[in-house]
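Recall from the previous lesson that a structure prediction takes nothing but the amino acid sequence as input. Here we apply that procedure to Heme oxygenase from Suhomyces tanzawaensis NRRL Y-17324. The sequence below is the only information supplied.
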Amino acid sequence: MTTMGATTKLSQQEILPAKDDIGALANRINLETRGHHDKVDKMMTLRFALALRDYKIYRQGLQSFYHVFASIETALYRQFEKDDQWTEMLKEVWKPEVARRERAATDLMFYYDDHKDKFLKPQMLEQIAFANHILEVTAARPYLLFAYLHVMYLALFAGGRIMRSSFAKATGMFPQKNGMSHDQIVKLGTNFFTFDVTDESLLRVVYKRDYELVTRNGLTEDQKLEIIEESKYIFDQNARCIMELEKHNMKRITQKWSYIAVTKGAYVVALLAVLLVFYYVRRIMAHLLF
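The prediction returns the following tokens.
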């Protein structure tokens, strides 16, 4: 390992795992969950495009992920209070800089005007099920936390820069704050995608390296297979949470239009009647004249 200025660089030999290392747990997870990942990725891409136009849509998605990360980190710190092999292994991988619960909460406080009660507890069924599942399965099998440390946190490294760039260009998304520039507002609402480190790329490489070194020989094959299956569940449950939000929003829109139809129905019917009469009068006049 060499040091250049304020940034520490890793030699090529220290960058693990190699992309073609089929024995690395991280690579096995990526391979086995590719279909699950692609499904969620497609869903996220489409919905993120909508979220960039309306912060109320974005904050719903962020709230869903907040509960996931809050549950993971609650389970992780609960495990850290124990003195066993899993605590030692998890501590070797975990980096405090990647923690997301507080950063997500900071953003949500911004989007909900400091009303913590709006997001502190999950309200929707799939979100509740996901949060409870994380706490329950990791209490019984702490090594399943390795599934979450890979799937959920590495996704932030991969997408963080892209998300920040998209947010910076989304001039119509953010709530307006008096006396604040667009850049200031963006900074207040994008803590979730930032890491308090000098070099994000280095943090990602070190995180992946330590994950590989710990999981290569520290887990049995059966435990690795369980982690792979849990990783599939993570992608699928994230998809269910996204679809649940979509159904919730569609229901609200439908109810809104149903309300309009009921309360304004008489006016709509009268207007349609007038238009219909006008149409037939015009047809009759055209027939008489020509």
